[in-house]
Amino acid sequence: MSAFKDPFDASTSLTRGCSCGRHTDEAAHQADLASRTADSEALGNRVVEAAVMRALFPHDATRRRFLNAVGASTAMAAISTFFPLGMAKEAFAQSGNLEKTSLKVGFIPITCATPIIMSQPMGFYARQGLNVDVVKTAGWAVIRDKTLNKEYDAAHMLSPMPLAISLGVGSSPIPYTMPAVENINGQAITLAIKHKDKRDPKSWKGFKFAVPFDYSMHNYLLRYFLAEHGLDPDRDVQIRSVPPPEMVANLRADNIDGFLASDPVNQRAVYDGVGYIHTLTKDIWAGHPCCAFAASREFVTKMPNTYRALLKAIMEATAFASKQENRKQIAEAIAPANYLNQPVTVVEQVLTGTFADGLGNVRKDPNRIDFDPFPWHSFAIWIMTQMKRWGQLKGDVDYAKVAREVFLATDAMRLMKEVGMKPPTTTTKKFSVMGKEFDPAKPDAYLASFAIKR
Amino acid sequence: MSRLKSWGAPLLSLLILLGMIGVWHALTLPKTAAQTVDSEYAALVGAAAATGQKSAFPSPADFGRKIGEHLSDPFYDRGPNDKGIGIQLGYSIGRVLAGYLLAALVAVPLGFLIGMSPTVYRALDPFIQVLKPISPLAWMPLALFTLKDSAVSAIFVIFICSVWPMLINTAFGVASVRREWLNVARTLEVGSFRTAFRVILPAAAPTIMTGMRISISIAWLVIVAAEMLVGGTGIGYFVWNEWNNLSITNIMTAILAIGVVGMLLDLMMAKLTKLVTFPE
Amino acid sequence: MTEPLIRIEGISKKFTGRDGTETTVFENLHFSVDPGEFVCLIGHSGCGKTTILNVLSGLDQTSSGYVFVGGREVNGPSLDRAVIFQSHALMPWLTVMGNIAFAVSSRWPEWDKDKVRAHCQQYIDLVNLTGSEKKRPAELSGGMKQRVGIARALSIQPKMLLMDEPFSALDALTRGVLQEEVLRICAETRQTVFMITHDVDEAILLADKIVLMTNGPYAKIAEIVVNTMPRSRTRHDLHKHPHYYRIRNHLIDFLVDRSKAFAGDAVNHDPRHPPLVTPGLDPAEAAASPAGKPLVAVK
Fold first, then answer.
1. What is the count of structural domains for chain A?
2. Are residues A322 and A221 in the same domain?
């Protein structure tokens, strides 16, 4: 389904082919339409409206029933009363000066932050007329507080964090947005070298694990992985929250048996000979999101042009990083003390996917980490099901609504297109985690299907 | 004999230092072990890992080389997250002095008031007793949340931790000014303002300065922890950043620098204390 | 008859103990000090001597009764009454000059530095401390410290001097030297002095009148002994005077026996007019002496 498909058109055929029937598929139809639409701004507006409409009614059949009942313009007006459509459209207006050119963006020194970091030394920010200081920050709680305090205009966060902040889980609720995912995959389960024979997770009973933060994909993936192998993550093992830089030191000191962490922590454990890489997270869930680029809703609405420029820089950087051939160059740019402060080879192994596994083998896995900015709403919904599964989130949640408000898929689509990436045409998709399918339309059923939960 | 006495202690110190370095050197002698993996793998990992070991603790020579490196260029600035150790120390000292002076501005007058009035003392005592033992880092989340600025928060944490010894010592010093000196002032019809500055202040000065000396040590302890937590700049951030990189030599350099600056701050306060101390 | 400089009328002092019981240290004391007179107060410890001195200086308050100085009621410390403390009470962070200058500039805040300095120097010279101006109290001997205390008290040119056992902490030799010095200075300045002591010889050497107090609690003034020896006495030839041993014996007799048993012979005792006695005179002399006859009503 195309981003430009008009969801207000109740007559659109739901079968294959395009809406007018003259084209083989919707994309062709759209290309034709775009070339003919002289007023590109009107097109932009329609894209925004379309995305909103589709987000509200993800099921085509339902949406069509709704439109048939009230009519497109009434629907638009009704939606405008609770969604700031005008603002969203304004934010996308091409023209307009930057409200602010000197920005501060916080990051945690891990490879997940690659697009945020590399944009500085490699000039992606500068190309958008922005003078950005990327500031290294000590931990997730601090990055959250500094962003909430407006010391940072935007920040690198774990993708569950904007959801948690918006829901008021673990902090007071503040409207937060996540306009882009930074990276997909790129994490790993690392175990202490003394456990090199305990490859079977069933033998991990009593282990002490570390994850970077309670509200992190790392925590949810590790819990999921353990539970799938029959271990209750709260009863059979210990999981504690440890800042990434302390993980290798703790592993070395035998304080923990392993961790599920971001790189370069895993590769660094191998480099120092204290651990081995057990499982890459891409083998748990291929294409899972990890870290995110996040900003407060206030920043997005008050400085739409700056926000747009910043996001565009991140998108361009992400597009650049997603190409394998650029990875070495990026590793060199982000390894110095000002950024990740790691040996170049460690960063390079993470980014290129040709790496030492800690057991004497050199593995080649080009998809070890990848970069795709699109904030799928289904990712947000999956994260919320896990928050509920492990008792972080209680009561009923309007999954779709929260996902829509926090994961700004619309903006991402538009900008991805501008920087020459191919955005998906829908905001939700089914995916499978360790062979088990997740249907974003049925989060409650998914949640109910787990044997181990709280 | 007297020559031996004056040189004995420094000589002994030097011998202890050399002894410690010797033991350290012996313990960190590189273990010669055959490479256990193929060279393609070895290129991807650290030297220790290539021989099937964990990365080793640095030797005194590594440490000395690193110190030399830092001393040769202490003030470089390569972006907001990478500055020379001299600049980082400067940031930390600046923060400590700001928080500390602020604390002194509050603690000394307030301590005066508390020391002069037993009623005020009794009224404030429970608060002081509860607030005094709170760890500096426990204040940090609260400060970040309410002050909404990490630089101000760091200064606040210094302030709140260094205020207590000064406050308590000032109050104690003022309360225990000898009755007879106050009586002298009274029989001379000296006004309360002049009594405070000409009698109570000089009489309590040694006690107040002792409190200030304790406080500067605490402030210096706290800044490193606070900066490790908040990051950004300062020697605490430097330690954290090098921990991130697992660079033990850098961390040790920073530890040494922290120790030396702490000693200098204490020496400075000791000098000042001596100035106001009177023999009885 | 001149108006007395100090008149004490019926003062008493009560303390409330921790358990709530009230202790009366002394009660209903009456006596007076004339200008230029040197009066000593003798009594055992616990009879409230220091309290009386503190009341006179204004540092302490009575439970009842009045104290008048120069016809005005005392209601606080005053530069008119300088105190020499038992423990000298010098400020250790100030030099000799600084300690005295602190007093002088308190007395005359309008004076400039030079004037204060010159004035201080005069009193440093008076107590024979010339050359020690820049020393701190810690560098001085006990006797020198007390000299500074005396110089500080005199420097403000008070109407009267109150001394609280000023020489009790000193060794006998130093004490003697200082006593003579005080005698000399008082002769030179005609200073009115009220002094507390428990040293009988010191009282006989220095005082014109010696007030005897009974033991506390409920201490009273038993009598006032008039020192009938000439004022030109010195420590050296004091004991050669015929009055000396009579006065001395009378005082020691009082301190050893009568101070305890005084309540018994208090039948004719009028606390408003404690008897003036002249044990120094033999009975014949006493009858002839103008001091002997109507002494009861000196006032």
1. 3
2. no
> Which of C106, C107, C135, C154 to probe the B interface (max B CBs under 10 A)?
C106
C-alpha–C-alpha distance, residues C81 and C78, integer Å: 6
What angle separates helix C96-107 from helix C113-126, to the nearest 10 degrees? Answer: 120
Place C121 in a pLDDT band, splitting at 50, 70 and 90. Answer: very high
Q: Are residues A174 and A307 in the same domain?
A: yes
**Are A273 and A412 contained in the same domain?**
no
CATH at C67: 3.40.50.300
Residue B278 sits at the chain C interface (C-beta within 8 Å): yes
C93 closest CB neighbour out of B186, B188, B278: B278
Nearest to B231 among A136, A244, A355 (CB): A136
Task: Note the pTM of the prediction, 2 decimals.
Answer: 0.73
Question: What tens digit of pLDDT does each residue of C237-261 get?
Answer: 888 888 888 899 889 888 888 777 7
Whether residues A44 and A88 share a domain: the answer is yes
Is the pLDDT reported for residue A232 higher than 80? yes
Name the minimum distance, in Å, from the CA of A359 to any CA of chain B: 9
- Of A249, A264, A283, the residue that ends a domain is A283
What residues make up the domain containing C227? 6-80+158-275+286-297
Kindly report, residue by residue over B12-59, the tens digit of the pLDDT: 999 999 999 999 888 887 766 666 677 777 878 777 777 777 777 888
In a domain, C87, yes or no: no
User: Count of domains in chain B?
Assistant: 1
Which CATH number goes with the domain that contains B172?
A: 1.10.3720.10
Q: Kindly determine whether residue B46 and residue A339, on different chains, have CB atoms separated by under 8 Å.
A: no
- DSSP letter string, A176-212: EEEEEE--EE-EEEEEEGGGTT--SGGGGTT-EEEES
Between A145-149, A255-259, A429-433, B16-20, the lowest mean confidence (pLDDT) is in: A145-149
Residue in B179, B181, B182, B188 to test binding to C, most C beta-carbons within 10 Å = B188
Domain of A11 in residue numbering reads as: 1-95
Q: Is B22 on the interface with A (CB under 8 A)?
A: no
Q: CB distance from B142 to chain A under 8 Å?
A: no
Among all residues of chain C, which has the CA nearest to that of B178?
Answer: C89
Instruction: Enumerate residues 6+ apart whose C-beta is below 8 A from C181.
Output: C127, C128, C147, C150
pLDDT tens per residue, range C178-205: 888 888 888 888 889 999 988 888 999 9
Query: Counting Cβ atoms within 10 Å, is residue A327 exposed (0-12), middle (13-18) or buried (19+)?
Result: buried
